[in-house]
Amino acid sequence: MAVGSKDLTPEQLRGLEASALADALATAKKELFNLRFQSATGQLESHGRLRAVRKDIARIYTEMNERKLGIGREATADETTTEKVG
Question: Could you name the domain of life of the organism this protein comes from (predicted)?
């Protein structure tokens, strides 16, 4: 994984509540804004961090959309057990 994305693994995101996910999204967006500002002013030292934060935001959005649609690893595990029984 990229630098800094270890604190937002997909497994950890699945364990968060909706409010904690929204907080993580807001934090990541603020960090991305600050990194873009540093990049524009020539103060950014680690350009790889921009990519890592964008990917973290994408992971959070993916988890939110999966919950909204009722899909994900938990849903697929439940579907496979009902198929075997039924």
Answer: Bacteria
Give the CA count within 13 Å in the CB-facing half-sphere of 65. 6
Alpha helices in 2-85 (DSSP H): 10-15, 18-41, 48-69, 73-85
Picking from 25, 86, 83, the residue whose alpha carbon sits closest to that of residue 59 is 25
Confidence (pTM): 0.74
Tokens describing residue 76: 């697929």
Q: How many CA atoms lie within 13 A of 24 on its CB side?
A: 26
- Inform me whether the pLDDT recorded for 3 exceeds 70: no
